[in-house]
Amino acid sequence: MSDPLAGLYQELILDHSKRPIGKHELTDFDAEQFMRNPTCGDEVTVRVRFEGDTLAEIAWTGQGCSISQASASVLSSLATGHTRAELTERIEAFRTVMRSRGQEEGDEELLEDAVAFAGVSKFPMRVKCAMLSWTALEGTLAKLS
Ligand code: ZN
Q1: DSSP characters for 59-118?
Q2: How many angstroms separate the alpha carbon of residue 40 from the centre of ligand 1?
Q3: What spacing in Å lies between the alpha carbon of 68 and ligand 1's midpoint?
Q4: What sign for the dihedral angle of Cα 15, 61, 34, 38?
Q5: pLDDT at 2
Q6: pTM
Q7: CA–CA separation, 30 vs 141, rounded Å?
Q8: 52 CA to middle of ligand 1, Å?
Q9: pLDDT tens sequence across 13-66
Q10: How far is CA 26 from CA 30, 52, 91, 95, 142, in A?
């Protein structure tokens, strides 16, 4: 079986999984969302704090495979400072890439380091790992709307 991490961006994903960004408890937050990926055992809780319509802070806790951890880290690195509409746009863009089975590379302007996960979309079993924290962020936005 081929390694879903193999390829150009392997290092970036491994790096984020080893030194995750935003992985801490946020005590002052507006919404939180827990998500679980039963096929892999990944768990993540995303917490967000908004100032007006702008995401001021995002943090997450949880455990799981390197893809789920790295994806939550990359999400944290790019989400701060964006409005809800911009976040929704990014979540949708990431979902499109992850559902493309390797056909979509993703817009780097929107997704920044998250384009590194495009290769994961060839492995349907791992797509949920990569999407988990993004779906959790989407859940927090739904609670706030
Ligand atoms: Zn996983």
Answers
A1: EEEEE--HHHHHHHHHHHHHHTT-BHHHHHHHHHHHHHHHTTTT-----HHHHGGGGGGG
A2: 5
A3: 5
A4: positive
A5: 56
A6: 0.93
A7: 10
A8: 33
A9: 889 999 999 999 999 999 999 999 999 999 999 999 999 999 999 999 999 999
A10: 10, 18, 21, 26, 19
